[in-house]
From TrEMBL:
PANTHER family: CYSTEINE DESULFURASE ISCS 2-RELATED, CYSTEINE DESULFURYLASE FAMILY MEMBER. The lineage of its organism: Bacteria, Pseudomonadati, Lentisphaerota, Lentisphaeria, Victivallales. InterPro entries: Aminotrans_V_dom (IPR000192), PyrdxlP-dep_Trfase (IPR015424), PyrdxlP-dep_Trfase_major (IPR015421), PyrdxlP-dep_Trfase_small (IPR015422). This is Aminotransferase class V-fold PLP-dependent enzyme. Gene3D superfamilies: Aspartate Aminotransferase, domain 1 (3.90.1150.10), Type I PLP-dependent aspartate aminotransferase-like (Major domain) (3.40.640.10). The keyword Mitochondrion does not apply. Residues 3-350 form the Aminotransferase class V domain. The keyword Transferase applies. Keywords: Aminotransferase, Pyridoxal phosphate, Transferase.
Length: 362
């Protein structure tokens, strides 16, 4: 059986989530926009699921929830909405490329906040921004941001790598989440906090975006209902899961730091543990092409990544490592190991052994 440590790309749903999804596929196949009784019942259940998702992820049930099919769809909807379109936006070069492309397309101006060598953001308070858009957990490096709102500036949080794993920052005004990252078979959502002054306009825009302008499709009800169910399961186990994954991360750091590499260099953890999500461990292998290592590990039935899955086949160096000031050569040498809810200590040990063998034979 494969050792799957690419959970930041997609997390496998557990048996309970899959069973729930199968049942919903059988019983929730109607169109939630239909005028008949089944359509009405689905709308009622989706309203309840929105409250459930809000409670599970934001610890309150009154966030406005705009459903979607993927994180990319949510980014595009947000970028085209009054919250972003024609506005001055402060973001960072560490954001997911799907978010950056959407912001550059729609915002009047995009400014970039600097970051420290550990990847922590250093946003200026006098940026003149009308919206701040930052990740909670960086998708490649695993940097965990300590996000604080700027005075008078709404805060959008890309929580796609954090939702279902870590508490959302209480200061968020808007947050994007995706079920694929915390063990749902799909579905995504944009959460608007009750304090966000533009939530009504945003909801009205989202309705027009989908139903009048036809710029995105209708999300499948079974996926959305399962998304809320999976989020509730993750919330119930969050503290225990955090403790367990933190122990796995610490063990992996000990096993993988200082590995001898071709050319005489040694491996090192890119982001200090105190600045990182425990669910992602990023390793730098100086002098080694991590894309080659990923393929060699795959032959040993160990699945990891050289970076974000959406950029896995590009020939350019890691934009995230480049933003941290790494040289072009080093920016090709990053390896992302991401843990899931079912990752075991034995998985970590076998991965470390396989990596040592691959590096020896590189």
């Amino acid at each position: 059986m494969s050792i799957y440590l690419d959970q930041a790309a997609a997390a496998y749903p557990d048996r309970e989530v899959l069973d729930f999804y199968r049942a919903e596929l059988e019983h929730s196949g109607a169109n939630q926009e239909a005028a008949h009784r089944l359509g009405y019942e689905l709308r009622r259940r989706l309203d309840a699921a929105a409250r459930e998702l809000s409670q599970a992820l934001a610890d309150r049930d009154d966030c406005t929830v705009i459903w979607g099919t993927s994180g990319t769809e949510i980014f595009n909807l947000l970028a085209d909405s009054p919250a972003v379109a024609g506005k001055r936006v402060l973001t960072s070069r560490l954001e997911h490329p799907a978010l950056l492309v959407a912001l550059r397309r729609s915002a009047a101006e995009v400014k970039f906040a600097p970051c420290g060598k550990d990847g922590r953001l250093l946003p200026p308070e006098d940026s003149g921004a009308e919206l701040a858009a930052f990740h909670q957990v960086q998708s490649e490096l695993g940097v965990r941001q300590e996000l604080r709102p700027l005075p008078g500036v709404p805060l959008f949080v890309d929580a796609i790598q954090a939702a279902g794993k870590l508490p959302l920052p209480p200061e968020f005004d808007l947050a994007a989440v995706s079920g694929h990252k915390f063990g749902a078979p799909g579905g995504a959502a944009l959460l608007a906090h009750p304090r966000f002054a533009g939530k009504a306009k945003l909801a009205e825009f989202a309705h027009r975006y989908r139903h009048v302008e036809y710029r995105c499709g209708r999300p499948e009800p079974a996926l959305l209902l399962t998304l809320a169910f999976a989020a509730t399961r993750r919330r119930a186990a969050r503290e225990a899961t955090l403790r367990r994954i933190s122990e796995l991360n610490a063990a992996a750091r000990e096993l993988l730091t200082g590995l001898p590499l071709p050319g005489g260099a040694r491996s090192f953890c890119t982001v200090p543990a105190e600045a990182a999500s425990p669910f992602i461990l990023h390793l730098t292998l100086p002098g080694v092409q991590s894309g080659v290592v990923v393929r060699m590990l795959s032959e040993e039935d160990v699945m990891v990544a050289a970076g974000s899955a959406c950029a896995s086949e590009t020939r350019t160096p890691s934009a995230a490592l480049t933003a941290l000031g790494f040289s072009r050569e080093l920016a090709y040498s990053g390896l992302r190991i991401s843990f899931g809810f079912d990752t075991s200590p034995e998985d970590v040990k076998k991965m470390a052994e396989a990596l040592k063998m691959v590096l020896k034979n590189y």
